[in-house]
Amino acid sequence: MIFGNSRGEGWVEHIKQNGFQVTDIVKPESEIQTIRQKHNLPSDMASCHTSEIAGYLVN
Asked: How does DSSP classify residue 21?
């Protein structure tokens, strides 16, 4: 799954082109922050879109 804002279309295409099946979910930043916190992602490593792949976050 990819969580992000509406500017993430390029990221979605990049992930698809590299063989991943994508579920693209646009969420408010506050909900994305909650997901990042759940996975203990430091705020200085966050970007405008976050992917969850096999239980791992990729920014």
From this structure: -
- What is the pLDDT, as a whole number, of residue 3? 60
pLDDT tens for residues 10-50?
778 888 899 988 888 888 888 888 888 888 888 888 877 77
Torsion of CA 39, 40, 42, 46, to 10 degrees: 10
* Identity of the amino acid at 44: D
Domain-by-domain residue ranges, the chain?
2-58
Radius of gyration of the chain (CA): 11
Q: CA–CA separation, 19 vs 23, rounded Å?
A: 13
